[in-house]
Specification:
Blueprint: E1 32-34, E2 58-73, E3 83-97, E4 102-116, E5 124-126, E6 129-135, H1 145-148, H2 150-165, E7 173-178, E8 190-194, H3 204-211, E9 222-225, E10 230-236, E11 248-253, H4 259-272, H5 291-303, H6 307-321
Parallel strand pairs: 2-7, 4-6, 7-8
Antiparallel strand pairs: 1-9, 2-3, 3-4, 5-6, 8-11, 9-10, 10-11
Amino acid sequence: MTRMFVDAWDPSYGASFEGDSSDGPASPSSAQVDTDVEVPADQWAPIDVSSRVRCPDVVFLVDGVRRNDAGLWTAEEDGLSYAGLAASYAAGVVRCDLRNGIAELAGARVARGLFTASPSAEDLQAGSVRYEVHRVSGTGEASKLPAAVQAPLTALEIDISGAARDGGSDGADLLVVDGPLRNRRQLPRTIGYVKTQQKQYLPAALTAVVTSLRPTQRTPVFQLGTVWGGWSWYLRLPGASGAPWSGIVRIECSPDLTPAEAIELADLSSATLPRFASSSYKDPRAPQNLVPIAGLERRLRGMLGDARVLHRALTLATARSR
């Protein structure tokens, strides 16, 4: 008999394990995977937190948010027209002092951009807010402009992460990036935290190890042969509903690390991250949406300002330009 589970996530956020409309949730990845990194594939089994692993004194958690403020169109002198997107985005870092039990906002910054392929577009002043022009390549179709916001947002996250760490932690820290590492792989002592699983990277026999994890257990480390590459592993957080993929997160670290360094970070993650897991009565994306990340997201969205006020300011600014 098929067993059914209710996903703990609020359905408005999608699902904790999902694919796109054509792939479906059981879609396998085409990436080459080396599963013999930590132990041979035929010896895979859940790994418990070692009593020898010491949590870092300080954990930095970084995240970014973005919002589309208005869609725009340009009217060029040669008669052509280009789509544009006015977007606000922000990045911030929460510093968690585990030794003293203190969490605080270590830094946050807001930026705004006008994304378009128009060769003549300039910065747009909307009231007291300036949208800096970001020229996108190609024809700049409107549907592709939201993705162009990710690069400057990532750059902002990197800048603010470095500034927060400059405050001093004596090297005994861990930086947790919400989402894949991508071009943040150069950051030291850093892991990427992927809370929504869209692909199955492992063969069926090893996927069964993932779904058999108990809270705080992780899988052995494996290597992904994707464009960005890197070492990766799965971890189940406490507070899951009991469904096969409930509470499962995938964690990754830089491919520039040695296998031993990757395994060390894997052990560190399984000892550290479960203490930040959220509860379903507080967060619709529990337990994967870590408590400091959820608080940071709320703070950053507030910093973006009132969307209606900005939309009106943009409407007035473009009217004046005409």
